[in-house]
Write a structure and sequence with these properties.
Number of helices: 7
Helix content: under 10%
Distance between the termini: 55 Å
Number of strands: 49
């Protein structure tokens, strides 16, 4: 029923304007080529506009040459306004890791953003807040299901505020990547780049090194080697068709202390990309796109024998797109399917022995026991199908008036599956018995030594959930003399809700003088989304294990009997859709040949999904109910300036941000009981819900990016990053009794007594870091050139320590590269 209601809404306005009959008429004027950093378009994704706010856009040439280490999306995104990256994204202890870091946009939690590529979502819905690779009943997830290759992008766009109505399903921000089209002439390339620990400086104090070496369970990668190899080509297939194909592999290897030896772990990220473009004429473009970004990590459980396991992630996507352009507007359509997987392949038997004649290896790791085996295979899969239709008109002029419209319809279907394919046996309690007799071939008993008397059995299961999301948007851009007003409306029909979600958005700008570079602007918007489909999967799986025990019968282990069972259950029902209300004020001023943009942003986010208190019900199950009790309040001031001239390009930005929130993900419990809600801090009792966040919490940050193209085919790129000092709260280990007015009374009216932790404030120092890159293209023969690159991260080798544990970040690091291009 909603579909038939939305179709007239989506297409009535273009039909009224007579747009479709004009699609076959003469070609529209070509849009201006955007610079490396643009102000945001308000209506249609991928439209090139230069007169709105909320957007940072990095263009292809800049992306190719920016010094960015592993060259993931988040390595670049941290230079955009409103984006903060997790503090330990460049930890000096784990230099071998290569996965993209988590980011927060406009104060949102890291899993509340919308990641898109070529107009189609690439959000990871499979427990994106999970990060523990050694959990028995969990595997890591990621907010992105695909990991795009920066070298293949035409543009990378970040919307942090004043976000167009064409985007929805989030309460944070939008990251939109657009891949480039193949060129009209044949070209091929191959190359290598890499780094290693010998080319890296570290600032790890000797005391910390000793602690790390004494604790094998702590991740520590003092030696590593990273190598990236890539190859590809682009070629015309006919006068109207062209093909682009590329493959890349980034592999990291590093030895890790394991028992009395060193064992090697690996991380491998592959990227396979193909794009076929067909243009029958200048008004029509059809694209077929395929992308695969598998990730694999070879791990082992620290100080456990025969514990090697493989983790696989990433995904693949296929997509078809069509664009038809005419004098009245542009019709866009695309459809695609994405599959992502998170999987662990591991031994299905875990044993924790006491020391004995045959079980001495644990002493090599200075442990209290000898451990071996693994936690078994575990599998998650996401299938996402999308259909998007959109139409945007060109501006219609009537005297001092001008108007254009944008409308669209989208339908998304997601299926999540979680599976444990086989029984996993976890033995953790053993007993020493002299003259013990064991059955032949017993795996849980050692004759004359010990046997296991307790075990946990994880049972096989296979559960699946699905979700439909239907949405439509309608927007317009109205010009009258020096005033621009851009209203927009988005209507969402998530199948988890009983009623549609309405998200109005409006933006207005006024040019007080004829100079169009100077303007005042304001905006208001509501963003809705973040329905955690994975939590429905967690609810559906129910109990996943039971425990058994046994005794000793005539010197032999007896039979197993039920000891207890999994009583943990989850409920994810009847929750409202999270939303974020936003207000912005700003001004754009011409300055020194560029544009200085100043923006004030406020956001009030409510109905965030959090874990409620686990309560025991009459059934005996201990149930955690998810709630809408999470909230956050965000304020920011952004100042940015950009200019491009001759061979130079400069992008600069300065941001102040303040974010008050009590939870960092849907797994966190919103404090409610007095002893959980309050702390004693700064000489008084304070509500945790009113305290600033401690992650993604740098109050001041600044970035400066400069590129220079020389006459000798050399491009020099420099990036400076400043992050201000910020305060964190640490536990003193002391407690203080709550006053009666805060502790409250029980159900019978009697006063309650409660004590809360005493916290102290500590300051993490500010830092200023410079990264620089040099890229040199040397002609060798006709059409053939040699490409050399050198990148130096943290040029001045500053010692940077961050996080409550004062973890050192990586010092100076050199990346070298070489390749051929024809």
């Amino acid at each position: 029923m909603p579909l038939f209601f939305l179709l007239p809404l989506s297409f009535l306005m273009p039909l009224f304007l007579g747009a479709f009959p004009c699609l076959a008429s003469e070609d529209p004027p070509e849009p201006k080529t955007p610079s490396a950093l643009l102000l945001a378009p308000l209506l249609v994704p991928d439209r090139s506009e230069t007169d709105a706010s909320g957007l940072t856009r990095f263009e292809g040439p800049l992306l190719e040459k920016m010094p960015a280490g592993n060259r993931t999306l988040t390595d670049v995104l941290q230079s955009a306004s409103g984006v903060q990256i997790e503090e330990l994204s460049d930890s000096g202890l784990t230099g071998g890791e290569i996965l993209p870091a988590r980011i927060s946009i406009s104060g949102a939690r890291f899993h509340e953003n919308d990641f898109r590529m070529d107009g189609m979502g690439m959000n990871g819905l499979m427990s994106p807040a999970s990060s523990d690779s050694l959990a028995i009943h969990d595997i890591p997830g990621h907010a992105m299901a695909l990991f795009p290759d920066l070298d293949l992008l035409e543009s990378l766009t970040v919307y942090s505020h004043d976000i167009p109505a064409a985007y929805g399903g989030f309460t944070g921000g939008v990251v939109s990547a657009r891949t480039r089209n193949p060129k009209e002439t044949f070209s091929a390339w191959a190359g290598w780049r890499g780094t290693r620990n010998e080319w890296t400086s570290f600032h790890i104090p000797w005391e910390l090194q000793k602690d790390l070496q004494a604790s094998p369970a702590t991740p520590y990668q003092p030696r590593f080697e990273k190598n990236e190899v890539r190859a590809g080509f682009e070629t015309p297939l006919s006068q109207n068709q062209a093909l682009l194909f590329s493959v890349k592999r980034l592999k990291s290897t590093f030895p890790v202390a394991h028992l009395s030896t060193k064992d090697t772990q690996t991380r491998t990220a592959d990227h396979v990309f193909g794009k076929l473009v067909h243009r029958p004429d200048s008004r029509k473009t059809f694209e077929v796109l395929f992308q695969a970004t598998p990730y694999e990590a070879e791990n082992f459980i620290p100080s456990a024998r025969e514990s090697r396991f493989t983790y696989r992630g990433g995904g693949m996507k296929g997509q078809v797109s069509a664009t038809v352009e005419g004098t009245s507007g542009v019709l866009r359509a695309h459809a695609g399917h994405m599959r992502a997987e998170n999987e662990r392949k591991a031994p299905s038997l875990w044993r924790k022995w006491e020391y004995g004649p045959a079980t001495e290896w644990g002493r090599e790791g200075d442990l209290d026991s000898s451990r071996e085996g693994g936690y078994g295979d575990f599998f998650r899969q996401q299938d996402s199908s999308s259909l998007h239709l959109g139409f945007s008109t060109h501006r219609q002029e009537r005297g001092p008036w001008g108007i254009s419209f944008d409308t669209g319809l989208s339908l998304d279907h997601h299926t999540l599956r979680e599976k444990r394919p086989e029984t996993v046996w976890v033995y953790t309690a053993s007993r020493k018995v002299l003259d013990l007799v064991c059955a032949d071939g017993a795996l849980d008993c050692i004759p004359g030594d010990q046997f296991f008397y307790r075990r946990t059995v994880y049972t096989p299961y296979d559960v699946e959930v699905e979700q439909w999301d239907l949405a439509a948007h309608l927007g317009s851009e109205i010009h009258w003399n020096n005033v621009v007003v851009r209203p927009g409306l988005r209507l969402q029909f998530p199948d988890s809700q009983d009623s549609p979600a309405l998200s109005p958005r409006i933006f207005a700008a006024w040019h007080p003088v004829q100079n169009q570079d100077f303007r005042l602007r304001a905006g208001a918007a509501r963003y809705q989304g973040g329905d955690a489909i994975y939590l429905r999967l967690r609810e559906k799986r129910g109990s996943v294990y039971y425990m058994e025990h046994r005794g000793l019968e005539q010197g032999r282990p007896g039979g197993w009997t039920l000891y207890s069972q999994d009583v943990r259950h989850y409920r994810y029902r009847n929750l409202a859709l999270p939303y974020s209300d936003e207000w912005t004020l700003g001004a754009d001023l011409p300055l020194m040949g560029g544009i200085l943009a100043a923006t004030w942003v406020e956001r009030r986010t409510r109905n965030q999904i959090t874990a409620g208190e686990a309560l025991t019900e009459e059934s005996g199950f201990r149930v955690t109910r998810y709630t809408n009790e999470g909230s956050s309040d965000y304020k920011a001031f952004h100042l940015s300036w950009q200019r491009a001239w001759k061979r130079h390009e400069i992008m600069a930005r300065l941001s102040f941000e303040e974010n008050i929130s009590a939870t960092s993900s849907y797994n966190d419990e919103a404090p409610s009981a007095p002893e959980e809600r309050y702390v004693f801090f700064q000489g008084r009792f304070q509500d945790k819900n009113q305290l600033p966040r401690m992650d993604y919490a740098r109050p001041w940050s600044a970035d400066l990016l400069h590129t220079l193209d020389t006459f000798a085919g050399i491009r020099i790129s420099t990036r400076a990053r400043y992050r201000a000092a910020y305060k964190i709260r640490t536990d003193t280990g002391e407690e203080k009794e709550l006053p009666q007015e805060l502790a409250g009374v029980d159900v019978h009216g009697y006063p309650l007594r409660a004590s809360v932790p005493v916290l102290r404030e500590e300051t993490l120092k500010s830092y200023l870091r410079f990264d620089s890159g040099l890229h040199w293209q040397i002609p060798l023969a006709k059409g053939l050139s040699l490409e050399l690159s050198a990148e130096v991260l943290n040029v001045f080798n500053h010692a940077i320590f961050t996080g409550p544990a004062r973890i050192p970040l990586t010092g100076r690091q050199l990346w070298l590269g070489a390749g051929l291009r024809y």
